[in-house]
């Protein structure tokens, strides 16, 4: 068994049980965004969280142990994503990446936005012209330091 096997078990149980990520997150008392990333193998659960997830998805003990192992992060298998939704996010960075960079540097100075000290929230926005996806990302600013 490996972490990918555990991810497949979780997705299989989610489908079979008709669960939503929000329900798993509520059980853990964490955001649906972080819990989804963790269930998909991108974050590490602590023991109590792994035990809860294991019960929620009826996972064997070996799978629960894998939930506590620090993963290799990065879930896109190719340099340019082929999944249409993931590709659109990639395209967004290709088109607006320099704009994000320019505006962040203008507002904060020379540095980066952390993907470690990070929060994300995804919500559906009703719109008469067609519902919209609203993704808010918030990362701590990390300035480059002189040494």
Describe the structure.
- The radius of gyration is 18 Å and the shape is globular.
- It has helices at about 5-15, 20-30, 30-40, 45-55, 60-65, 85-110, and strands at about 110-125, 130-145.
- The mean pLDDT is about 95.
- A two-stranded antiparallel ribbon has the order 1-2.
- The termini are far apart.
- It has 2 domains: about 5-65, lambda repressor-like DNA-binding domains (434 Repressor (Amino-terminal Domain), Orthogonal Bundle), CATH 1.10.260.40; about 85-145, Cyanate Lyase, Chain: A, domain 2 (2-Layer Sandwich), CATH 3.30.1160.
- The longest helix has 25 residues, at about 85-110.
- By secondary structure, the chain is α+β, with helices and mostly antiparallel strands.
- Helix 2 (about 20-30) crosses helix 3.
């Amino acid at each position: 068994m490996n972490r990918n096997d555990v991810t497949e078990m979780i997705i299989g149980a989610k489908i079979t049980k008709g669960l939503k990520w929000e329900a798993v997150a509520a059980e853990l008392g964490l955001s649906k965004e972080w819990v989804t990333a963790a269930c998909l193998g991108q974050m590490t659960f602590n023991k109590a969280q792994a035990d809860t997830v294991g019960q929620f998805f009826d996972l064997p003990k070996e799978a629960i142990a894998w939930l506590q192992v620090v993963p290799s992060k990065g879930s896109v298998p190719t340099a340019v994503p082929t999944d249409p939704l993931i590709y659109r996010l990639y395209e967004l960075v290709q088109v607006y990446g320099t704009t994000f960079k320019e505006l962040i540097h203008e507002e904060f100075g020379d540095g980066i936005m952390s993907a470690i000290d990070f929060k994300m929230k995804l919500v559906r926005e009703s719109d008469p012209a067609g519902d919209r996806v609203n993704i808010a990302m918030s990362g701590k600013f990390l300035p480059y330091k002189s040494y």
